[in-house]
Description:
Layout: H1 4-23, H2 37-46, H3 59-72, H4 75-100, H5 105-116, H6 127-144, H7 149-164, H8 171-196, H9 204-220, H10 228-244, H11 256-264, H12 271-277, H13 279-310, H14 318-332, H15 335-348, H16 350-369, H17 374-377, H18 381-393, H19 399-402, H20 406-428, H21 435-445, E1 452-456, H22 462-466, E2 470-474, H23 475-478, H24 483-489, E3 494-497, H25 499-505, H26 509-516, E4 523-526, E5 539-543
Helix pairs in contact: 1-4, 1-5, 1-20, 2-3, 3-4, 4-5, 4-6, 5-18, 6-7, 6-16, 7-8, 7-9, 7-16, 8-16, 10-11, 12-13
Amino acid sequence: MLGKRRSDLLGLLVVLLSSWVLIYHITHRLDVVATDDDVYFRNGLNATWRNLPPTQMAPLFSLWYIVIQAFTHNVIDTYYVSWAIMSVLPGLGFYALLRSLRVGVPTSVWLSVFFLFSPLNFPLALKVSIFTMLWLMGGLIVANRTASPLGKLVATGTGALLATYGRPEFYLAFTLLSILAVGYWLWERRKTTTRLGQKITPPYALAALIGLAGALVLWLGFPLAGGRSHIAFGQHFALNYAAWHPEFPFSPWMHSQEFIRAGFGRDITSMGDAFALNPGMFLKHVGQNLINLVKMTGQMVQDVLVTPWLSRLVFPGRRYVILALLVAVLGLTNWRQSISNWRAGFQRDGWFWGCVFICILPTLISCTLIYPREHYVVFHLLVYIPLAGVLIRDWAVRPLLARQPRLLVFGAMLVLLGLFLWPHWQVAQQDKPQPTAHLLRGLQQIPAQGKVNMIGSVPLLYKLYLGENWDFDFLEQYRPKDMQAFMRERKINCVYMRPEMVAEYGKDTYFAQLVADPGSLGFTRYPVSPAEEAQPDRCVLVKNELVAANHSTRLP
């Protein structure tokens, strides 16, 4: 028989092994992508321990990048290290959270691994949401290990407070949890004083939490200040409006203000302003968001809890096997005992469910008023994965399966897990195209001297990876009609040439000459990657005076 500690350790090792499969060979199969995280990334690289960004700009996430950069000393390596760690930690967090709810080790392992390999983990580009979720997770784990209701509220509130410095919306959750904690302590104080004639112990932990919150506000500013909410509302209202009016001749991401003016008559200053201008349009937007949220939630739960094992049953007659499995589960379930267990379990864990609902309340509000985005819906897994865990935990079966040797259960888990991980291991060993990462590493080796003004078709913060002397103009934003005039006006001395760029601007006489004979216009052609040859429609063109006189057309 395995002891409790040995079972926990074995489960932890299995989750770690699965995490290793997840991130193996990451630098050969994950490309650098442009996301909103680039803003936090840049802030982290420019910040110092004593000079962090304000609360609205996720100062703790910036601090995270400061720590990693101190070890890697290379921005691209920092990018990959952060991505890998932020893909591993949530799996470990879910395992610890499920075990704090007394969910069995095999079930905790499986649910954690399912999340590790879900589309809401590794592929999710906005890692600031995962970073924030880890603080909430930590608070809930400590709360589940605490006997006192006041301690549970304080622990969860601490996690919400720290999460605020990843996503400022969670200051609402911290505020509600603090109010509940104060109210509970006052209620306990009154009850104890009335019955026993003595005062209860002062809430030192609660006082410390409120004091910490005050100090952080004085240092980094009030989290709910600023105009982020109505800016985000405008950007995402444009998505809904574009779906309702596909004939509208603007891009919702590039020209969101045009959609705001069309829907509300003028620019807005807040969501309240939008509601006052056109209540019907505002409520239509909210209703569409609720529909989208239900659809996205259903897909999310399926991707995390159903698809990972269902995808392995791919063969003729699959539906009949699945139906047989479902009938077997229903038939083996001791329904009377299961319902009794579930009722008792939810009552016993009532504080957890109350705390976790308050934690995700800001994201529910955001998904309703602004838009149900993946990096906000992912927080709702703090409800769905524990819910699946406790339902399995308290599931009662008929005597035939009620008692099985623990070693047999663990052995079956390891065999099934091996079958699950094997296809992922095969995929992890395969190299995938990394055009942006190759480009960045190639640009790092070009001997550019002075200010670089670059154009191309990939909207990336090149300064972030290459240095402050690099500026980049995204052609999609300008769509120039005369490339020669545009390049002269913008003082362009570097061009990232792509096939789609050639196809779009190839009829421009100057641009066509630039593609065919860059030397005649004073440019030198470099390959995108050291391992490739420079091709007319896939290369980097650099103005000759930008590099040393004795430069080579081959990258070092």
